[in-house]
Amino acid sequence: MIETTSADKPLPVGSAGKRSGGWWGMVALIVTEASLFGYLLFTYFYLASQTEQHWPPEGLPSLLIPGVNTLILLTSSLFVWASECYLRFRQPRWSLAFMTMATVLGACFVLIQLSEWHKKPYDMTSHLYGSLYFTITGFHLLHVLVGLVILMLLLIWIALGYFDHRQYAAVTVGGLYWHFVDMVWLFVFSTLYLLPYL
Amino acid sequence: MNDSGLRCRHCAAVGSAFFSMVSAAMLSSAAEAETEAAPLNYFLHSYGPASTPTMYLGWVFAAIAVAVFLIIALLLAGALFRKRAVDEPASIGRDNQGMRWIYIGTGVSTCILFALAVYVLITLNTISRPARTPALTVTVTGYDWWWKVEYEDNDPARRFVTANEIHIPIGLPVLVKLKSADVIHAFWVPMLAGKTQMIPGQANEQWLEAEVEGIYRGQCTQYCGLQHAHMGFEVVAQSPADFRAWQDEQRRAVIPASAADAVAGQHFFIERCAGCHSVRGIGAAGAHAPDLTHLNSRRLIAAGLLTNTPEHQVEWIMHVQKLKPGDRMPGFELSSSEIAALSAFLSTLN
Amino acid sequence: MKDAVESTPEPRLSRVPEVGSAPIGSAAEMRLAEIWESAPGWRGWLSTVDHKEIGLRYLVTAFIFLLMGGIEALIMRLQLARPEQTLLTPEQYNQLFTMHGVTMIFLYSLPVLSGFSNYLWPLMLGSRDMAFPRLNALSYWLFLFAGIFLYASFPLGEGPNAGWFNYVPFTGLEFNTGPNIDVYALGMVLLGISTTVGAINFIVTLFRMRAPGMSIDKVPILVWGTLTASVANVFAVPSASLAFFLLWLDRNASTHFFDAINGGKPMLWQHLFWMFGHPWVYAVVLPAMGIVSDALPTFCRRPLVGYSAVALSTMATMLLGFGVWIHHMFATGLPTLALSFFGATSMVISIPSAVAVFAWIATIWLGRPVFSTPFLFFAGFVLLFVVGGLSGVMTAAVPFDFQLNETYFVVAHLHYVLLGINVFPVVGGIYYWFPKFFGRMMNETWGKWSFWVMFIGFNLGFFPMHLAGLLGMPRRIYTYAPNMGWNTVNLITSIGSFIFASGILIFLVNLVISLRRGALAAQNPWDASTLEWAIPSPPPPYNFAVIPLIASRHPLWEDRLDEGERRSSLLEGYLLMQGRETLGTTPLDAKPDVILKMPDDSYTPFFLGLASTLAFAGLLLDWRQFTLLMTLAAGLALTVWMWPRTSLAQRVPRREPMREKNHD
Question: Which residue in A25, A35, A131 is closest to C204 by CB distance?
Fold first, then answer.
């Protein structure tokens, strides 16, 4: 016989926040992407520990601009979070504004990072450190770019009025990716910029 | 056995009998007919303290593996063919039975594995370094597809280089430093020691020692390209006196040729061969191919492919790309007079 | 019931799932069939997201790769049958053994298991599809395209030629100038995407898509195996993808990761590759072991002995599997301490395997074995598993491995593992589930012949390889001298390999004939206990007319097992038929949690897969604009895919915001 304990309880339908398949899928994607960065940093530490070269070859990195850039990226994460909250508060205009801010800050991060690249006196072919530096930051930048595309899509969808206080799973899921991209930067930043000071 | 047995029960019995017969037959035929000749048979033969503990370890492991296999096979056979009470055809056996199998089976396996692990660690410790400090250091560099052998000495004048044949004195541990000039190779003289990879940019080493005079075959065991199959060498273990004599002989530079055809051959060699090969004493200093200074003191040529006879030398020079396709040494189209001259010159490289 | 639905404030976003039954031929059942059916013809073929269709495609494609890899092996065995043969040039031999390894390890062994899992998971779990049907389709298309990509240069004589583990610096630009290695590197990154998205799909499916009541301790072992393998892949595949990508950068962008002259380390490759490689080896056997753990009990007429122990041992194997990669690198000059540690873990990892072996033997012992073809394969597998396990313990013994490493002993070991633990369960699994797949039985006489020929041929072919290894024969040599003592063993191996191949041929003939003329199969021809046998053979497009309610591990044996009063409800359950719907449940207890809207058939996975593959082809050929264009196309396909849809309840329907404002 059928158990009726749960059968008469209404269930949410479709994509509902953490109940949506997409949220679970994104978590799994983040796990695998985090592993990717883990192996990338393993590569860095393995080669750095074995090298006989001066490390980093150009002396200690300057922290000012990368530090500011880190703050910019983290702030944009806050805005994405705020955007999601304001959808829930039934204030889609604010949500839209916050998402715009997040996207702009994300774009700023990319531009500053590109100018950092430009300032380096070496490139990825110059020496081992150069290969590592540009590959690791390049990997991250690629993820930021993908994240930016996601933020822009979310922006468009919010602007089109696709989401309201009950249906905003895409913002949760997409936002999760952006938070991940920002968290990973903290590891990359610590490895490439802070650790040489130790 | 239950005589209601399906045909496949007989098949199973026949199959397993066949299987054990085949393996027994293969073991005996292979072991008796061929292994005596098998120059890399480390499982049955070991001639030095770096490999003998491993050989015994191998026997213990093999014996235990065979025993465990037989026990499991018997259990499986018992499980398959044991007599059973006739039961209701549609009935289903009870769950939550039989955990004892897992407890006992896993428990026993764990104990065996633990004992084996201890044995492994002890053996590893035994063979990881020689009992005495090695008196002799040889640097072996892997090339596509041959071996450069450098005998080190504190006095630079006493150092010398040879190829594809390593002489060692018996009864003394020898330190072998391993390098690679191109890709990863692996240095392996199975009857004397296990293998170690030769990795570019990395200084590896191992040691070996022969207790008995003899010739021990070595082989590259890391896939390294087209002629990985033909990258062999030999270790010649000699009495200390013979070894010293060999060393003194190797240190000597050759005396430039004097006979007319040998002189022509020497010119030809300088012109055509010295870009890669070196011969001390005549100004041939190529560094891409085996040193040929005392070519005729070696038993084999072409990294173990051919015995070292004048005919084989000529055949090698003429047909290298047929004998060892893809070898770094190009094939040469030589006239018969050139061959004769070169051959005469090579015959002076004692 | 109807009242309840209408009383909910917004039925579109929340409703009480309808409970009822939908017997075959009822209006409800016909409506379900209509909802879930794919379009006929090529449109449906390109756009289907049905896990059964995708599962079969995986199986067929993987089998084609198995045959290709097998033919490569037979050619190599001809070359090695006698010493100093000249059938093949060294380069041909090297490409053959490389493609043989790549094909068998990457294009056959995991995909074939993904095929089983794709087909069977939703049926075993009582769901109507996988968690992400479109991702499932993408995973298949990428697998197919990556397979073609990896083979693209082989007919031109420029195939990968450095062995499947592809050690640098031999694979660096200096020693390997052709496109061979670039094809391998890019192909593997592409295949890695397929594997990863496939793995994510399995993980989410397990945690979300089980029928209500099927708590985590009630899922079949195959599900545990594939879950464990998928989790491992999620962590491990990035390592290989990164290694291959860095190698590609070294070759094409002059970076220095593996370049010893400029401070790079060839050993980095070995670490990255084996940190991936070893978990992968377990990923390609654990689901196959799961097949046996699930199917063997059916033929023993009793439940598996030690379900929890086997499930836990599956996970323990994988966990330990991440800590043994160094045992592929014992001969690289690492410190003795590291060797001791990894040697010990490599021996410990055989303990969970022992658990499984004794569980299987106990199941047979305590059961009443029925000697049908699938059972022969599973029982034979147990024996081969033991041989492969024991030779594995021998190679784990560090000093002995200094000798065994890179000899034919290792070749013998890995073939006992991969053929014994993968191919035998897979073929047995096909005999077992064939009636479910196609509604027809396979022929038993031919089946038994195929087993015995395969089993004898296999042992005849691969057992002597152990001896060749003990006689010192290195692997990957294209020929050998007659005086090395390897002549007899090699001849026997070659003969055995052809006998084994004829066994496979008998199996394939049986398969083709049974497909057309096999006896019609009932719903549950083997009287098995799991959920996939509770629905018609072949299953209807919607799988379950109603989502069943599960009370035990053996829903179809409950009456005969006499365990407690609880009974699963298979004919009455959740109807869920407002479009493609299935039930999402809570991760551990499987309590109803959400009504999931499932996507319709879609072309986007195909186009996304195609565009990604072409982008990789552009990278290979250095057509930059083309690559950029294809990347944009892929991005576009993804955008279309992700665009929120009303039908999936991902967005507010058109014009609804207006109404809602009025409500507020």
Answer: A25
DSSP conformation letters of C522-569: -SSTT---SGGGGS-SSPPTTS-SSEEE--SS-TTTHHHHT--S---E
B3: alpha, beta or left? (left if phi > 0; alpha if psi -120 to 50): alpha
Task: Determine phi and psi for B209, rounding to 5 degrees.
Answer: -150, 135
The answer to whether the CB atoms of C333 and B54 lie below 8 A apart is no
Separation in Å, CA of B79 to nearest CA in chain C:
4
Average pLDDT, chain C: 93
Strands B174-180 and B136-143: parallel
pTM of the model: 0.94
Q: Does A8 touch chain C (CB under 8 A)?
A: yes
pLDDT in tens, C11-28: 778 889 989 999 999 999
Subunits adjacent to chain A (3 or more Cβ pairs under 8 Å): C
Nearest chain A residue (CA) to C21: A2
Q: CB atoms < 10 A from the CB of C117, how many?
A: 29
CB contact B121 to C (< 8 Å)? yes
**Mean pLDDT for chain A overall:** 92
Q: Would you say residue B296 has pLDDT above 50?
A: yes
Q: Would you give the distance in Å from CA C188 to the centre of its chain?
A: 16
Contacts of B319 in chain C (CB under 8 A): none
Chain C residue with Cα closest to B65: C390
Question: For chain A, which domains are there?
Answer: 62-197 (1.20.120.80)
pLDDT in tens, C418-430: 999 999 999 999 9
Contact by Cβ (8 Å): C601, C584 = no
B63 touches chain C (CB under 8 A): no
What interface predicted TM-score (ipTM) does this complex get? 0.95
Tell whether the model's pLDDT for residue C173 goes beyond 60: yes
Which candidate, C246, C339, C253, places its Cα nearest to that of A47? C246
pLDDT band at A5 (very low <50, low <70, confident <90, very high): very low
pLDDT in tens, C382-393: 999 999 999 999
Nearest-CA distance from C104 to chain A in Å? Answer: 24
